[in-house]
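Exercise: predict the structure of this protein bound to molybdenum atom.
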Amino acid sequence: MPNTLSRRDFLKVGGAAVGALALSEFIPPRVAEAARVSGLLDSTSSGYIPTMCEMCVWRCGVLAKVEDGRVVKLEGNPGHPHSNGNLCPRGQSGLMNTYDPDRVLTPLIRVGKRGEGKFRKASWEEALDVVAKNMLKIKDKYGAEAMIFSSTHNLSQVQFENLLNAFGSPNYGTQRSLCFNAMIVSNLMTYGMEEPDRSYENLKYIILTGRNLMEAISTSETSALSKAIDRGAKVVSLDPRFTKTAAKSTEWLAIRPGTDSAFHLALLNVIISEGLYNAGFVANSTTGFDKVAASVVSYTPEWAAAITEIPAETIRRIAREFAAAAPYALAHNGWRTSNFVNSFQTERAIGVLNAIVGNWGTAMSAASGEESGGLGAPPQPAYPRISAQRLDGVPWKYPFVPLKIGVFQELREAALSGDPYQPHGWFIARQNPAMSLPDRGRTLQAFGKMDFIVTIDIIMNDTSWFSDVVLPEASYLERYDPLNIVGDKAYLRQPVIEAQGEGKSALWIYKELGARLGLADFFQYTDEEDYLKQQLAPLGVSLDEVRQKGYAQLPGESGESPELNWNTPSGKIELFSSSLDRAGFSGVPQWEEPPAPKPGQFYFLTGKVAQSTQFGTQNNQLLHKYSDEPRLWMNTAIAKGLGLADNDLVEVASTAGKIHIKLEATQAIRPDCVYLTPGYGHLSKGLTTAYGWGASDSDVHVTYTDPISGSQALSQTFVTVKKI
Amino acid sequence: MKMQIAINRRLQVSPLVAVLLTLMGIAFVVAMVRYIYGIGAISNLSNSYPWGFWISFDLFTGVAISSGGFLMAATVYIFELKQFKPLLRPSILTAFLGYIMVVIALLVDLGHPERIWYMMIHMNPTSVLLEIGICVMTYLTVLAIEFAPVVFEGIKWQKFAHFIHRFIMPFVILGVVLSTLHQSSLGSLLLIQPAKLYPLWWTPILPILFFVSAVSIGLSMIILESSLSARYFHRGLETHLLEKLAGVIPIVVGTYLIIRFAQLGLAGDYKYLFSSGLMSVLFWTEILVGSVFPLVYFSFRKNRQSANGLLFGAIVVLLGMILNRFDVSWFAVRHPDPLTYLPTFMSGAHYVPSLPEVAVSLGIFSAGILAFGLAAKYLPVFEEEEPHAEKL
Amino acid sequence: MTDIQHKAFLFDATRCIDCRACMVACSVENKIDMDKTRIWVAGVGLIGQYPELKRASMVYHCMHCNEPDCLSACPVGAYSKRNDGPVLYNKDKCIGCRYCMNACPFGVPHFDWDKGLIDGAFIDKCTMCPQRIDKGLEPACVATCPTDALVFGERADLVKEAHARIQAHPERYVDHVYGEFENGGTSYLILSHVPFAELGLPNLGERPVKDVSEKVMEITIPFALGWGTVLTGTAVAVHLLNQKKAAKAKKVEEEQTEEAVK
Ligand SMILES: Nc1nc2c(c(=O)[nH]1)N[C@H]1C(S)=C(S)[C@@H](COP(=O)(O)OP(=O)(O)OC[C@H]3O[C@@H](n4cnc5c(=O)[nH]c(N)nc54)[C@H](O)[C@@H]3O)O[C@H]1N2
Ligand SMILES: Nc1nc2c(c(=O)[nH]1)N[C@H]1C(S)=C(S)[C@@H](COP(=O)(O)OP(=O)(O)OC[C@H]3O[C@@H](n4cnc5c(=O)[nH]c(N)nc54)[C@H](O)[C@@H]3O)O[C@H]1N2
Ligand code: SF4
Ligand code: SF4
Ligand code: SF4
Ligand code: SF4
Ligand code: SF4
Ligand SMILES: [Mo]
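Solution:
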C-alpha cells in the first residue's frame, strides 16, 4: 500500500533506539520509596509504579515498568477503568514524548522577530519576572480583561482558572468549542448534565453518528465497543468515510455531511408515528413529548432520504430495530461534534431519541462528574469582581454556553476586530491554537495584535514558536498533577522520571507566577505534594498510601450510580426545552438546511487517526514510525475523472487558504468529500521530526460558529482540488 | 621461442590488463564502502530480496563454470584417458581460480565475513548451505594440492612435484566426490523454497538437474577456455581433444532434457509451460539455448571440428545454462510481498541490482582473468610435454 | 499438530482495528531501532468498490513455526526453538548469510542492511518476548491490544478457542484457522473474515517447506561414501586393466622379437 512513510522520511528518525532514550533518567526517590514499601518495586529496583497517561484527555491508568531504577516501558494499569490493562498506540509511545530530542527544557525568551523562532535560554527567575512584568503592564494600561487566558482541558486546569480569576480576566478560551460544544450544550439542555455516562455491557444496538471510536480512541470505550461487536451487538456507523469503525460496524451509511439531524429526526418520526417509544418512561421522566411528536410529523423517512442520501426503507428499518433493541440500544452522542452549524440540532435529536425509547439507566446513566467526590482544596480568598464582558460572547451572545467552556474562535475574532474591546496579551497553556483553531492565517494575525504572548508547553509547538516567552512544563511522566476523579476513585499522577532540564509542573509555575503577580494568597500550597495532601485531607488517606495504590477511594458506595434526577428547569429530561424556546431558538430539535458545496467543490472533512493526538504528538518519533503519510483522500472514481492519481501533488483551496498535499485515491470516501488527517503541516521548525510532513487543514478551514452552542463547524468548509 | 611468445603476450594483453586493473580498483572501493556503511549502502538487496546478483552470478554461476576441473581430473586420473592431459592443468587452474573468486565474493556478501570459519565449529547438519560451505572450502584445498605440482615445476622444485604426484589419487577422488556433492547441492539450496520458486523450476530432483547441467557447463568451459587461451597465447589448439569433449555434450544435455521434462510431466506441471508469461519465456529460452541447441549443433562433426564452431557452440551452451542458474536463484523466485502498509520494513518484492553490486562481481571476475593470464605466463600450465606422465 | 504443548498467539482479523499499539509496544519493550520493526501491518487494506467495502489487515510477525524452516536452513545453527514455543535467534553465531530469510516462507527475518563491520549487521525477528513470558506476562504486543485482536496462551486451547469463535459466528469468519496445520503448524494462529491471501499470507501445505531439503541432507553422507567407493573401485579397475593391456602388448612384442631372432 502506498500510504506509507517514505525511506527519506525514515532517514530522519532512523538509527536511534528507543531503549537508548528511555534509559537516561532516574525515579524520584520518594516515589520509588513508596513503591518499595508497597512491594511494587523489588530489591533490585525493578517493578512497576502507577501513574496516569496524558497523551490524550482520556487519562488511562499507567503502570510504569521499572528496571534497575529506570523506567523502560509503560503498561496499561489493569486496575484503572480507562485502560483495563491496555494502552493505545499513543499511550504506548509516551516515553518518546518525554524523551523527545526536541523537548523544551529551559525557559525561553524570544530574541528574533515573532515566528522567526529565535529564542535565548533564560532562568525561571528571569522568565517569570518578564511574564509577570508584561501581564501587569497590560493590566495597568488596558485592564485585566485585556489578557486572554486559554488552555485545553488538563488536570491542573483548576489552578489555571484560579490564576485567571485571581488576575481578574473574564476571557477564558478552551478547546471545547472546537470539539464538543454542540454535544455538551445539547446534553445540558436535554438532560441537565454535560455528558451522561455510557455503558456497553448489555447493548444490542448502537448508532454511531460520526463517532470514530476505532481511530479516535478512548482505550476503555474502544474496547467496550469492540467487545459489544464480538458479542453480536448491531452497530450502525454514520460517516461520509469508510473509517476503521465503519469497517467493524454491521452497517455503514455514507451519509451526506451535515444531514445527520435529518436522519435522526426521521428515526423519531418513525418511532413516534408507529408508537414504538417507551410510553411509561416518556410519561414519568420527560417533558414536551407532544411538541416533539407534532414537530416530527413532516420528517418522514422519504423526506430524509432525499436529504441524507440514505434510502427511506433503511431509515425505517433502523428506527424499528433501534426501538426493538431499546432499552439496550444507544444513539451515541458523539464527541467532536463540531461539524456543522446545525450539529446542535443533531445532538438534540440524538438526546431525544435515546430518551423516548427509554435507554436511560441501561445504556446511559448520570455522569459521576469530575468535581464531585469531596476532595479538599487549598483555602481561597474571594476573587475580584469582574465587570468587563467576555470577548467570546458568553453569555451575552451565547447564553447557553457555560463560562468554563466558552467559544474559543470568537475570542480570536474579537482580537482581530477589537470589538467589543481589544485584548493585548495571551496566556496559553497546554494548547496549540495556531493549529487547532480554524483558519490559521487569522490566528497568526491575532497573534500579531498581541503585545505579549506566553506559552506553557513541553515542546516547541507552533504556538510557542510565535510566543515571546516559552515556559517548559515537566512532562506528564515527570510531574505531579491534582488528583483525577473517575467513578468512585481519585487517581494520582506522580512523576516516574526525574524532571529533565528545568521542566516544572504547572502547579509550580502558576504558584510562582501568582506570587510575582501579587496573587500569592490564591496559591496557598507550598509545593505539589502539599497540594495533593490538602486534596486528600478530608479523606484521611496519606499521600504515600495513594502513591502506592495509585488512587484514593472516595466516600460513598462504589459503583452505584447517582439518583435519576436531571438538573434541568423542569427536573425532567426536556424533549422540548423551554429555555431554548424562550431565547428564541427552537425548543424542539428541528431541521436546519446546512450550506452545501457548489459544483466543483468538495466537503472538506477532518478526523483523527489512531497514531496521533490532535496537534501535539506528530513529533513523537515512535508514533511517526508507525503512522501513514497524511494525504488527501479523494474518491477513486472522482480522482480519475479529474485526471488525478495517487501521490499527485494537489492544491486544496477554500476562501480561507490553500495547502499543497499528496493525493490518496481511495474507495473509502463519498464522491463529494475529501478528507485530510489533522495535526500535520506544522509551522514550528522546532519540531524536527514533524516539520515538513503533511499539510494543515487548519490553513483551509473557514470559521463558522453555531449560534446556540458556539460550536465551530469543521466540516462546513468547501474546497476545490487541482493538480499542481 | 618462449621469449618470443612472452613479447607477443605483452603486446597482446596490456590494454586488456589496464581495463581489468581499473575494474578491480572500482570493486575494491565499493567493497570498502560496503564494509563501513553496510550492504544496503551499495546494493539494492532488501528484506524481501535478501539474495541477488552476487549469489546468482558469483556463487551459482561461478561454481558451475568451475566444474571443468573435476571433470578433467576424473578423465585423466580415474579413467586414465591420458590423451586429455594437455587440458588437465588449464581446467584445474580455471577451477582453482573460479573457487577463489566464489569465496572472495562471499566475503563481500556475508554480513559477517570474519566469521566464515564458524561453519567449521557450529555445524547445523540440516543446512544445505553448510554442506556447500564445507565442500567448497575443502575442495579449494584439494584444488590447491592438485595444482601445486605446476607451481613447483614453475619454480623448479621438481622433487616436491614428484612427491605430490605420488599421492595425488586420493585427492582426485575426494575432489570428484566434493564436486559432485556441492554442484548438486547448489540445487538443493533452493529446495527449501517450494513456496517461492516457480513450479517450472522447483522440483525435489533439483540436485540431479544441477549436477547434469554442471557437466555440460564444465565441458563447454574447457572448450571456451582452451580456445581463448589458444587465441591469446598463440598456442596450438587441441582441436582433436575438444572435438571429443564436444561430442559428449549432446549426450549430457540429452539426458538433462529427458530428466527435466519427465519430472515436469510427473509433477503435472506441463500446464505452466506456456501459460506463465515471463516465466514461460525464461524457461523456454533456457531450454532451447542451453540444451536443445547444443543437442543438435554438436551432433554435427563439422561444428565440432572447426575451432570457431567449437567456441561458438560452447558460448551458446554456457549462456543457456547460466540463464538457468539465474532463473533458479533469482528470476523465478517469487519473494513474499506481504502486501504491507509499511513497506519501509518489507520493501516490496522488486529488485534490480545496483551498479556498485555489479561492479563488485566484475572486479572479482577481472582478478580471475588476470590471475589466469599471469599463471599461464609464468607457470607451465600449457607445456606440451608432461614429464611425470610415466609415473601415473 | 493440535497436540503440540506450547504457547501461541491467536490473531483475529475481525477484531483488529489497525491501531498499531502492538507495534509501538514491541519497539519500546525490545528497544528496536527507529527505522526497524519486528512487527508490521500486512494486508490489502481496502477491498471492494464504494460503497460495498471491507477492510483487511493483519498484524504480521514471526509465526514461531512448530517446525521452523529458518532453524533448518541456518548453516551455523543460530536459531533454536524452545519447548514452550519461541523460535529464537542467536546473533553470536550468525555469519550473515541470510539463507534463513530465503527459507522462511513468511519473510519474517529482517537484516541490518544499514550496518557495516563495525556496528555488525545482524538478523532480527520477533522473539515471543521470552523476557516477559518467563515472568508469566503476555508478550508486549498482546498485552496492550485494546480489542483483544491478539491473545496469547496454550496453543491447544487457542486452537479450540479459534474454532469456537467460528462456530459461534460462522457468518463472520472464513471457516479455517490459518496456522493450525500450515507449514507443519505455527504458533501464530489467524482468524479472518476475508480470504487469507488478502492478508498477505502465503498458501502453504501441511508439510513444512524445509521437508524435502532435509530429506536430501539425510542421504548426503551415505551418498558421498558410496560415490567415493565407486570412484576408487573404478580407478583401481581401470588401472589394472591398463596394466594388463600394457603387459600383453609387451609380451606380444617380446614374442615378435623372439621370432625375429629365430
Ligand atoms: N487517536 C486519537 N484519539 C483521540 C483524539 C486524537 O487526537 N487522536 N482526540 C480525542 C478528542 S479531543 C476527541 S474530541 C475525540 C474525537 O473523536 P470523534 O468524535 O470520533 O471525532 P473525529 O475523529 O475528529 O471525527 C469523527 C468522524 O466524523 C466524520 N464526519 C465529519 N463530518 C461529518 C458529518 O457531517 N456527519 C457525520 N456523520 N460524520 C462526519 C469524519 O469523517 C470522522 O471520521 O477523539 C479523542 N480521541
Ligand atoms: N482541523 C482540525 N481542528 C481541530 C480538530 C480536528 O480534528 N481537526 N479537533 C478539535 C478538537 S476535538 C480538539 S479537542 C482541539 C484540540 O486543540 P488543542 O488543545 O489546541 O490542541 P492539542 O494538540 O490538544 O494541544 C495540546 C498541546 O499541549 C502540549 N502538551 C502535551 N503535553 C503537555 C504537558 O504535559 N504540559 C503542557 N504544558 N503541554 C503539553 C502539546 O505539545 C500541544 O502543543 O482541536 C480541535 N481542532
Ligand atoms: S486513550 Fe491512549 S492516549 Fe488517551 S489516555 Fe488512554 S492510552 Fe493515553
Ligand atoms: S493492537 Fe490490537 S487492534 Fe491494534 S493493531 Fe495491534 S492487534 Fe490490531
Ligand atoms: S515464521 Fe519464519 S522465522 Fe518465524 S519460525 Fe517460521 S520460519 Fe522461522
Ligand atoms: S543469516 Fe545468520 S541466522 Fe540467518 S541463516 Fe545465515 S547465519 Fe543463520
Ligand atoms: S512477541 Fe514480543 S517480539 Fe514478538 S512482536 Fe510481540 S512484542 Fe514484538
Ligand atoms: Mo476534542
